[in-house]
Amino acid sequence: MSDQASDFVLQAISFDNLEGWKDDDPSSLFEVMRRCRRQITDVKSYRTGSLGLSAEDLLPLLVDAENFTPSSPAVARAFFETRCRPFLIRRQDGKSGFVTAFYEPEVEVSDRPNELFRFPFYSRPNDLIDLDDGNRPAELDGSYVFGRLHDDGRIGAYPDRREIDQGFLAGRGLEIAWAKSKVDVFFVHVQGAARLRHRDGRIGRITYAAKAGHPFSAIGKLLIERGEIDRAEISMQSIRAWLARNPERVDKVLWHNRSYIFFREAAVADPEAGPIAAAKVPLLPGRSLAVDRMIHTFGFPFFIRADSLTHLDHGRPFRRLMLALDTGSAIVGPARGDIFTGSGDLAGERAGTVRNDADFVILIPKAAAGRFD
């Protein structure tokens, strides 16, 4: 295990001791696994996280899934039981893991701005460049993976949310569409994708392309610290309600999160399919997990047990096998995840109140599992 991963250990456990495993039905994961296999072998492999598990370690499992169609939940579980070993991710500080949730909003938009539709979604600017250890300026820490290339060749930080909201990108033709509400635009930035309902009835989709580079700062945490919302009541819904009650304070609260997201348009070949996220495969509602990609590698199965999270499973504790398919600026740590709940308002209602302790168990193909004993 690398030094970057030294704040946690993997504890081998058995499937027999994995509470909730025998009640789960992971049958829907096999089509997603086939898509991951094609991405890895035909397009581009996934980057290896600091845990040291690679796409090559995962590939035998994905290859076996290629022509496997489970006839029952038990058969689906047996597929993983015979090919993987489960490891509980234990944080060295003794704290439990933690899950939130995200969804794909649907936003009414216009192709042209007017008095009603005034707030744009922007595509990636041409002066936004990728940063690495070779070109990152000394004044920007390692968290900055994007920066601004100036006309004279200098590289610096890109303007933040406030500067962009105040017009930095105006007139450059980067607008994809315009929304009615800056709050709607902000929450699409938080989610990283959206369905766009155009005024003529067309449905489009935007997904993450890049970001300005500044760290993500949660406005919910800000409102808690200021005593505006009680910690026990914090949710996407309570934050939206506070913003609606305090329109004169919206800008300063939103500008607290300097991070700014740029999008690309994506085809909607299948309206029922989820957005294509960081792993370059469509997200499956309830079975797709965003993880810290600096630690974990996309495509790996995780069994998530969150006994206090009950509203996603009709009152039963959340205990499901999921695939790591996405990431996010706020998803930091070895046992930290974001559950994709689907698209539209109902999915948003489900996602907005998820803030629960959880156990994270990673399933590692047996050939690689020996490295972690």
From TrEMBL:
It is an enzyme of class 4 (lyase). Keywords: Cell wall biogenesis/degradation, Lyase. InterPro entries: 3D_dom (IPR010611), MltA (IPR026044), MltA_B (IPR005300), RlpA-like_sf (IPR036908). This is peptidoglycan lytic exotransglycosylase. GO terms for molecular function: hydrolase activity, hydrolyzing O-glycosyl compounds; peptidoglycan lytic transglycosylase activity. It comes from Rhizobium aethiopicum. The keyword Lyase applies. The lineage of its organism: Bacteria, Pseudomonadati, Pseudomonadota, Alphaproteobacteria, Hyphomicrobiales. Pfam families: 3D, MltA. CDD domains: mlta_B (cd14668), mltA_like_LT_A (cd14485). It catalyses: Exolytic cleavage of the (1->4)-beta-glycosidic linkage between N-acetylmuramic acid (MurNAc) and N-acetylglucosamine (GlcNAc) residues in peptidoglycan, from either the reducing or the non-reducing ends of the peptidoglycan chains, with concomitant formation of a 1,6-anhydrobond in the MurNAc residue. It comes from the Bacteria. Its EC number is 4.2.2.n1. GO terms for cellular component: outer membrane. Residues 106-264 form the Lytic transglycosylase MltA domain.
